[in-house]
Specification:
The protein has a domain of 69 residues: Roll (SH3 type barrels), CATH 2.30.30.100. The chain has 2 helices and 5 strands.
């Protein structure tokens, strides 16, 4: 007997607008509120940030963006206090983050 594999699921993908709407709905339903950090937590994050930057240590950085918390790993190569940005590098790839979006930072 011949397997129908993905052919049997094609009718469900016949309405791409509906699939896009459902995907967006699921994405929006899974969003969380921005974590609120206390003054002590913010001070601790600030101390860790500068200590790890000075020592050029590999870190795991969690940041909040658009309802989700993301994880990035790398070395903090630059802190721009006036723009409130940090730059993290991992395997030659550089990413910029707002300092205000950071929710946690740990050594790897």
């Amino acid at each position: 007997m011949k397997q129908r594999k993905m052919v049997k699921w094609q009718p469900f993908a016949s309405l791409p607008e509906q699939a896009n709407y459902i995907n967006q709905l699921v994405y929006d339903m899974n969003k969380i509120d921005r974590p609120i950090l206390s003054e002590d937590q913010l001070d601790e994050l600030n101390e860790k940030l500068f200590r790890y930057f000075e020592n050029k240590e590999m870190v795991a950085l969690e940041y909040y963006h658009d309802g989700y918390i993301y994880l990035v790993e790398g070395i903090i190569i630059k802190i721009e206090p006036l723009k409130q940005l940090i730059i993290v590098e991992n395997n030659g790839k550089r990413e910029k983050f707002s300092i205000a979006s950071i929710v946690n930072i740990e050594l790897m």
